[in-house]
Give the backbone structure.
Amino acid sequence: MLVVMKAQASPEQIQAVCEHIEQLGFRAHPLPGAQRTAIGITGNKGEVDRGNLEALSGVAEVIRVSKPYKLASRDVKEEDTVIRFPGTDATIGDQSLAVIAGPCSIESREQAFAIAEQVAAAGAQFFRGGAYKPRTSPYAFQGLGLEALRIMAEVRDRFGLRIVTEAIDSPSLDLVAEWADVIQIGARNMQNFSLLKHAGKVRKPVLLKRGLSATLDEFLMAAEYVMSEGNYEVILCERGVRTFADHTRNTLDLSIVPAVQRLSHLPILVDPSHGTGKRDSVLPMARAAVASGADGVLIEVHNQPEKALSDGPQSIYPDQFARMMDELEQIAPVVGRKLERGIHVTAATS
Ligand code: PEP
Ligand code: MN
């Protein structure tokens, strides 16, 4: 169910409706829009009695939401969700393209700084790097953990870049929420429902990667898990799915971009690095991602990919990254977007 408030409803009226919903034993999710606030109701097994709700002051109408995902749905919130980063001009989900770049794994302070310097110079606003790595083999490099989080915090201090890194379980999620700006939930954990609920309880944006074989509905339901706990800042990320095709590591499914945008107000990024697994394919598919209308891209960049401890074959060189930025800058206006280069930090934040 969804309670649509009148355009002129006061904060007190919105608050009173939320309290009424909570008293009924449900959860209220106020979602402010440009014109009016909508209040999503979750936790109800069946129909909520709409009569009482419609009678409350400030209420315009009460609507049934038929989709299994509610808070993630455009039925509940028409306007695109825009995620902002306090103290900076960085955004995800508005007209400007978001570019997240960095190595698959943080391997050392020197490596992280060398790459960060070059992606910042080319105009990225977000730096990525794995601290906790979900590796197929237990014998492969598992990440530097807290040491890597500390290195990335230093990168933020030095270059202003906002930090995106993956949490693989509850303990790492608490640490990532403390040290980073965006919590990544990886493809392998897209249906780790307890981890999704935990991410819903923190107040940092969540970058949710599509599962290896997840349908659109499953993807949006995973976002719903995070939102149902009160964290509405979810960024979706297409990173390729498993198919019979073996010329790439995964099959990058760009057709999910317009499909997500039709059904959901959440931003959607594209990761052509994991989506193809091949360095030579990253630039063409990054261009295609922007042309498809994605809100931005996530790109693995390494200064010495041949020595990388993970995902070297798909990591592009810094000079390729700079070229990609030039290309995306030219494609962006064709689809009504802009590539803002660099991040401006207006206040000290961490
Ligand atoms: C990553 O971003 O390095 C990663 C492990 O991604 P995915 O979960 O999409 O495989
Ligand atoms: Mn990787």
